[in-house]
Amino acid sequence: MITRLLQLVVEKTLTRSPAIAILGPRQVGKTTLAKTIAGQKSGYHYLDLENPLDYQKLTDAYTYLQSFEDTCVILDEVQRMPQLFSILRPLIDEHRIPGRFILLGSASPLLIRGVSESLAGRIAYMELTGIGLLELPEDIDFRINWFRGSFPNALIAATDEDSKNWLNDFIRSYIERDLAYLFGVELSPVILRNFWSMLAHANGNIWNAETFARSLGVTAPTVLRYISFLEGGYIVRRLPPWFVNAKKRLIKSPKVYIRDTGLLHRLLYIPDLDSLFGHPGVGGSWEGYVIEQIYQQRSFDLELFYYRTQAGAECDLLLVKGITPLACIEIKLSNTPNVSRGFISCTEDLQPKYKYVITPGSDTFTTQHGVVITNLYHFITFLLPGLR
User: What residues form DSSP beta bridges with 72?
Assistant: First the structure.
């Protein structure tokens, strides 16, 4: 079993908080993580709210859960019963002990009505992302992680063919069943399939809702609703632009990425790693992979943006602390990269403390412009933790 880096954080949080919510996409390993942690203590009681029998047990949720006041209760796919949050509040207040409830969900708390109001001050939120570079077993190279993606079943599959079959099944089930079920809305499977395909081909590019709407034959609000659902389900990332205190004409639309590169490569019908390097989407794929690795390992006070002016100054990723640009990052697939003039212009505009170009496997050195060239593993292991 792969040990998740989040495990230590969750265990520490459970020693002081009565409830914790572990959120993330489906099939990412939330249930396994929760059972592993709870099982190390005095045991647990597990309820899957997508199981009709478990759902029925919570018809009178207050009375039922009250009988487990000294047992850790794991509530899986908790977004299926949003009314449960208001019931948990008095249960916690009546018997407030650490680690009483572990809530697992596949939707952002912003999409679960009433969560923040009901359990404010009583719950800690954690996001479990896919398996990252620093969690890989020794026999799995980062290139496999990049190609197959971060879902455990796809990553550790016996063959590439098994991995692709699992991802194909995930895409079909997520489009045709899970999205509508997850958010309780009617979504057209045909439009969603086309939408996924368009997102894959637009991966790493500027988001334009009007273009998507015209191509799909729907309204822009419908497209925005779809992208919000995918973002809320931890499948898509919209990377916002940075334009605070800027005096230049800037691009102010977000960039869009499919967060799991394995899903991206399936949607693009890329059969193997060798074919990926010859595909026009390889640059955007590597860029998205690097952004996700940095997102997983960043400190919580660092926010992620990109920066681009209409005159051509650009950096792929901007790490911001408060309202201060801390690090400008250019992401290159080549291990012998040239630092672009647009990136230098970006650093002149923003005056960050740190300037990096991140590659798959280059040595670490500093250019005459003060830009540090480094590889992804070295950056997230040694440089990212020191950004202050």
Answer: 44
First to last CA, the chain: 34
pLDDT band at 151 (very low <50, low <70, confident <90, very high): very high
d(CA 216, CA 275): 29
Integer angstrom CA distances of residue 271 from 72, 73, 268: 44, 42, 9
Count the alpha carbons within 13 Å of 252 in the hemisphere toward its beta carbon: 6
pTM of the model: 0.95
d(CA 309, CA 249): 6
Q: Is the pLDDT of residue 246 over 80?
A: no
Over residues 291-295, the mean pLDDT reads 98
CA distance linking residue 285 with residue 170, whole number of Å: 19
Nearest alpha-carbon partner for 279 in 335, 212, 208, 200: 200
The contacts of residue 153 (CB under 8 Å, 6+ apart) are 27, 166
pLDDT(111) > 70: no
Residues in the chain, overall count: 388
What integer pLDDT is reported at residue 251 of this predicted model?
76
Give yes or no for a contact between 212 and 223, defined as CB atoms under 8 angstroms apart: yes
Task: Specify the 3-state DSSP secondary structure of 349.
Answer: helix
Which amino acid is present at 260?
D
Q: How many CB atoms lie within 10 A of CB 34?
A: 23
Question: What residues form DSSP beta bridges with 205?
Answer: 256
pLDDT for 42-54, tens place per residue?
A: 789 999 999 999 9
Which run of H or of E encompasses 45?
Answer: strand 44-48
Count Cα neighbours of 115 within 13 Å in the Cβ-side half-sphere.
Answer: 22
Pairing assessment for the beta strands 324-331 and 314-321 based on DSSP bridges: antiparallel
Q: Which domains does the chain have, with CATH numbers?
A: 6-127 (3.40.50.300), 137-238+257-280 (no CATH), 298-388 (3.40.1350)
- How confident is residue 177, by pLDDT bands cut at 50, 70 and 90? confident
Q: State residue 12 phi and psi, 5-degree precision.
A: -65, -40
